[in-house]
C-alpha cells in the first residue's frame, strides 16, 4: 500500500495535462482543460463506490489534500459514508452557532446576495449592531424571549421608531434562521415583543417637497455657476436621487443620455440593469458648465477631495429658510407630471426609477420609455427655466 501512495508531486500537479491523475489510496486529481483542477477521494462503503470532493487545487494544496484523504479513508474503514458524515458534522457545527450575535452575523451573511451591493453599506446589520447586540449579543438565542426583546427595544420604540422597527424585523429573520439551523427557539418571540411594545407614537413623515409651481422661482436663484448651484439645478431637471447625481462621472454621459449604473440605484438588489436618464437641452448646458469645474471626471467635486456631500445642497436650502429639501424635488416633478400632463402611470413611475409591475410583467416589458421620458423632461425643463408661455 505504501508504494501506491504519494505518486504526485507539487510540481507535477502544476504541469499535468487535462485528465484524471491518481495520487494513490483513492486520491485523484481531476485537471480541467482550462488549467483548474479538483481533488476527489474515491472510497467504497457497503460495497458502493463514493466520490468525495475535497476542494479545488487553488484552495487545497497536495499536502492538505492527502491529509483530508487520510482522515476520510479512516472514516470509510469504519463503514461510515464519509460524505454523509461530513454533512452531519456541518450540521452539528451550525447548531453551535447559538449566541444571538453569532446567529445574527450568520443570517446577515446568508442574505448578502439579496442586498444592494452585498450589504457592504451595513444598513441591514446596523440596527442590530447598535441597539440589540450590545444587550443581547452574548445571550444564547434559545434563551431570548419576548420580554428580553421588549426591554431591549423599548428605550427607542417611540424616539427612534423606524430604527426600532427595522431592528425588530431583523430579529424576526434571525429567529427564523436559528430555527432553520435546528435550534430550539421561540420563532414567535419578536412578534410577541411587538405586541408588548404597543403602537408606535411616531409617524413617518415625507421629506418636504416644494410645490411644482414654486420651482421656477427657486431655480432662478441658482445662478452663480458654483458646484452646489449646478448640482441642484441638474437634480431638479432630472428628478434623480442625490446619490447618483453627486457621483456623476463624465464617462456616464453619452450624447444626451446619462446612464446610472444599476448598483447605484436605491432599492435595487442583485444584478440590475442600468438606468438611463434623458438629458434636456437645459440639462446639457449645465453638464457643460459643470465640466469646467470637474475633477478626475467627477462633475460635482467637493472643495478638498471626493464629491460634494449629501448635506451640501440641503444646507443651501436651509440657509434660504426653505422647508423643502433636495430629495423633495422628485415629488415636485411627480406632482407636475400628474397635474400638468397626461402621462401614463408606468412612464411616470419609470421617470423616477421606480420598479413597475411584477416580475413576470417586467420580464415581458423590455422598454424603459426613454423617448417618452425625454419629451416629458423637456417640458419640465421649460417649466422650471420659466420658458413656458
- In what range is the share of β-strand residues? 5-15%
Got a strand count? 7
Strand order of the largest sheet: 1-2-3-4
Helicity, in percent? 40-55%
How large is the count of helical segments?
18
CATH C-level of the largest domain: Mainly Alpha
Poorly predicted regions are none
Computed over alpha carbons, the radius of gyration is 30 Å
Distance from N terminus to C terminus (CA atoms, Å) equals 96 Å
Domain tally: 3
Q: What is the CATH T-level topology of the largest domain?
A: hpI Integrase, Chain A
The CATH H-level superfamily of the largest domain is Intergrase catalytic core
Global shape: extended
Oligomer: single chain
The SSE string, one letter per element, is: HEEEEHHHHHHHHHHHEEEHHHHHH
The biggest sheet, with number of strands, parallel, antiparallel or mixed sense and barrel status, is: 4 strands, antiparallel
Protein name: Integrase arm-type DNA-binding domain-containing protein
Keywords: DNA integration, DNA recombination, DNA-binding
InterPro entries: DNA_brk_join_enz, Integrase-like_cat_sf, Integrase_catalytic, Integrase_DNA-bd_sf, Integrase_DNA_bind_dom, Integrase_recombinase_N, Phage_int_M, Phage_Integrase
GO molecular function, one term: DNA binding
Can you give a write-up of this model?
The chain is an alpha+beta fold and 389 residues long. It has three domains: 92 residues, Integrase, DNA-binding domain (Double Stranded RNA Binding Domain), CATH 3.30.160.390; 102 residues, Tyrosine recombinase, N-terminal domain (DNA polymerase, domain 1); 173 residues, hpI Integrase, Chain A (Orthogonal Bundle), CATH 1.10.443.10. It has 18 helices and seven strands. Strands 1-2-3-4 form a four-stranded antiparallel beta sheet, covered by helices on one side. It has a three-stranded antiparallel beta sheet with strand order 5-6-7. A hairpin with a 5-residue loop joins strand 2 and strand 3. Helix 11 packs antiparallel against helix 13. The mean pLDDT is 87.
Amino acid at each position: 500500500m505504501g508504494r501506491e501512495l504519494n505518486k504526485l508531486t507539487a510540481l507535477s500537479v502544476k504541469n499535468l495535462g487535462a485528465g484524471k491523475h491518481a495520487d494513490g489510496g483513492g486520491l485523484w486529481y481531476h485537471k480541467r482543460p482550462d488549467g483548474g483542477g479538483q481533488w476527489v477521494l474515491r472510497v467504497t462503503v457497503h460495497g458502493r463506490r463514493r466520490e468525495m470532493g475535497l476542494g479545488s487545487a487553488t484552495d487545497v494544496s497536495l499536502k492538505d489534500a492527502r491529509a483530508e484523504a487520510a482522515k476520510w479513508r479512516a472514516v470509510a474503514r469504519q463503514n461510515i459514508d464519509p460524505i454523509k458524515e461530513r454533512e452531519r458534522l456541518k450540521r452539528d457545527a451550525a447548531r453551535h452557532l447559538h449566541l444571538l450575535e453569532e446567529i445574527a452575523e450568520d443570517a446577515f451573511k446568508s442574505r448578502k446576495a439579496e442586498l444592494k451591493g452585498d450589504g457592504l453599506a451595513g444598513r441591514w446589520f446596523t440596527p442590530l449592531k447598535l441597539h440589540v447586540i450590545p444587550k443581547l449579543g452574548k445571550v444564547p438565542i434559545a434563551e431570548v424571549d419576548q420580554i428580553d426583546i421588549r426591554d431591549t427595544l423599548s428605550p427607542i420604540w417611540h424616539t427612534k421608531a423606524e430604527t426600532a422597527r427595522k431592528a425588530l424585523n431583523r430579529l424576526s429573520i434571525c429567529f427564523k434562521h436559528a430555527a432553520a439551523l435546528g435550534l430550539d427557539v421561540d420563532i414567535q418571540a419578536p412578534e410577541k415583543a411587538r405586541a408588548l411594545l404597543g403602537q408606535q407614537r411616531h409617524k413617518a413623515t415625507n421629506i418636504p417637497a416644494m410645490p411644482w409651481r414654486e420651482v421656477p422661482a427657486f431655480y432662478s436663484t441658482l445662478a452663480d455657476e458654483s458646484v452646489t448651484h449646478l448640482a441642484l439645478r441638474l437634480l431638479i431637471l432630472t428628478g434623480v436621487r442625490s446619490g447618483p447625481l453627486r457621483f456623476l462621472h463624465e464617462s456616464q454621459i453619452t450624447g444626451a443620455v446619462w446612464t446610472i449604473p444599476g448598483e447605484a440605484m436605491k432599492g435595487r438588489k442583485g444584478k440590475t440593469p442600468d438606468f438611463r436618464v434623458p438629458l434636456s437641452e437645459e440639462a446639457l448646458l449645465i453638464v457643460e458648465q459643470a465640466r469646467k469645474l470637474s475633477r478626475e471626471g467627477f462633475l460635482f467635486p467637493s472643495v478638498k477631495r471626493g464629491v460634494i456631500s449629501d448635506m451640501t445642497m440641503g444646507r443651501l436650502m436651509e440657509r434660504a429658510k426653505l422647508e423643502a429639501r433636495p430629495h423633495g424635488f422628485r415629488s415636485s416633478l411627480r406632482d407636475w407630471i400628474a397635474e400638468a400632463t397626461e402621462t401614463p402611470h408606468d412612464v411616470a413611475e419609470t421617470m423616477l426609477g421606480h420598479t413597475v409591475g411584477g416580475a413576470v410583467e417586467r420580464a415581458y416589458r423590455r422598454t424603459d420609455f426613454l423617448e417618452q421620458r425625454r419629451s416629458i423632461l423637456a417640458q419640465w425643463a421649460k417649466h422650471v427655466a420659466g420658458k413656458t408661455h
